[in-house]
Amino acid sequence: MLYQYQIYSDGDVRFSYVSDGCHDVFGVKPEQIRRNSDIIHEMIHPDDVVGFDESVAGCIKTLNNWEYEWRIITASKQTKWLQGFSRLEKQSDGSIFCDGCVIDITERKKVEAEIQAKQHFIERITDSSPSTIYIYDLEKQRNIYTNHELVIASGYSSQEVQDMGSNLFVNIIHPEDLEKATSNFYKIAAAKDGEVLESEYRVKKADGEYRWLYTRDTVFNRNPSGEVTQFLGVATDITERKLAEIELQNTLHELKTTQAQLIQSEKMSSLGQMVAGVAHEINNPVNFIHANVAPASQYAQDLINLLELYQQHYPNPPEHIQSEIETIELEFLKQDFIKILNSMKQGTQRIRKIVLSLRNFSRLDEAQFKAVDIHEGIDSTLMILQNRLQSKPNFPEIQIIKNYSSLPLVDCFPSQLNQVLMNILANAIDALESQKSLSSPQIQIHTKLLNNNRIAIHLADNGCGIPPEIQSKLFDPFFTTKEVGKGTGLGLSISYQIVVNKHGGNLSCKSIPGEGTEFIIEIPASQTDN
User: Could you tell me if 151 and 158 are in contact, meaning their C-beta atoms sit under 8 angstroms apart?
Assistant: First the structure.
């Protein structure tokens, strides 16, 4: 509806023109409005009268263009929404001329109300969601929408989130996850409509705590060129799940480690039983031989003496006896026979020493702490490794340099401590043998008594050394630098458990690449002090 009217100084309002559209808007004819302008004012919804009058009065005072939306109730009791526009111009006689239009916006208002209801419905859903819902603008590099859960989950206020702007991700994403989260933006920019991209990363709350989020992002808007400009995402807090996963992984790792250590310990126990059994079986016949070598030597010497007496009394034996003497080389036989018996004695002594070392090394009968001579354990271990220390066609003999201090008897599990010595010394030999160009391979063993009633065993080789980046992993279960099949990765791990957990001691390593490696075992001399 188009209209023109004048407002006079006495407040009188007179319409000079009203278009036929007034019937569609107000349900009255143009002449009715021209005769009585109050007719359309009386239709204004009671709740909108004050606002309508104030808007008109304000424009009359300032002569600004008038624009307003209000409701009317027609004679047929129909409620309509109207929107009015008017241009005001003051006349020379002091009156104000108004030229404008009124349009029916009832349908538009219904659509707006429906949209608003839907928006309210969506907001209620998103705000009641336990997940954070957001729309991220790639061009502005910030969220243009987030539901209320972001405030609850992050501890930041909506204003704080907005103030962070494009720095939001830099400020809250864990530094270790920032690259992964950023790369996700590039993936989304290349994503297809309907494609969902998943990611997991940590974000920092306002109180400094980091929480794990699982996100699902999809394309939300594109520009006319088809480039992705915005994406819609849902972020769910999965911290409890991640912690449970980590705990489960740790538990599985511990179970795997424990199982492997039990198997390894069982192998060592079986080996110890076999060693002890072999030592026992060898010990009896060797002792018998060793015990009879001395009388056998005496008997042989007696027979030789008797033979020499016969030779003195019968210097010219019969021809056939003389022939036999020459055949068996009697003079050489008399000298060599005694040497053979002496060699047999030395051999049996050597075997007895090896058997003693085997028995000392296994010590299966000592399941409790026992006061032992540490040096004896070291020597027994070296005896067992003697074959590996000897020279080979392509590698020289490994020299063992001992520097033993005076030590008291040490309370320990002897067989377990011997196992530690075996693991470390065997690794040292492996390291030395890997250096084919090494001309003087050696292992130095130094023992000493510390001031705090602890003893220390230093085992150092002059091999290739250990790179710094892997030194911290030496005692980790299953960690090994050896080729597949040549190491379980449990030797040093079990050794650490034996020294630290079983003996209340400490096992450490010092290594300089190119110069060598030193392992240091420290344990209390007396477990009553531990």
Answer: yes
C-alpha to C-alpha distance for 236 and 211, rounded to whole angstroms: 10
**Could you identify the residue written with the tokens 């201090």?**
405
How far CA 322 is from CA of 308, 309, 327, 377, in Å, comes to 14, 16, 9, 57
Determine the CATH number of domain 366-529. Answer: 3.30.565.10
Q: What are phi and psi of 33, to 5 degrees?
A: -70, -40
Residue with tokens 């538990």: 251
Two tokens, residue 146:
């987030």
For residues 464 and 461, what is the distance between their CA atoms, to the nearest angstrom?
Answer: 9
Domain ranges in the chain are: 2-105, 129-237, 245-266+286-360, 366-529
The model's pLDDT over 330-379, given as tens digits with 9 standing for 90+, comes to 888 888 888 888 888 887 777 777 666 566 655 544 556 788 999 998 99
pLDDT in tens, 282-329: 767 777 777 777 888 888 888 888 888 888 888 888 888 888 888 888
The CATH classification number of 2-105 equals 3.30.450.20
Q: 494 near 475, Cβ under 8 Å?
A: no
For 129-237, CATH number out of 2.40.50.100, 3.30.2010.30, 3.30.450.20, 3.30.230.70 equals 3.30.450.20
In the chain, how long is the greatest CA-to-CA distance? 182
Could you please report the per-residue DSSP string of 100-157? EEEEE-HHHHHHHHHHHHHHHHHHHHHHH-SSEEEEEETTTTEEEEE-THHHHHH---
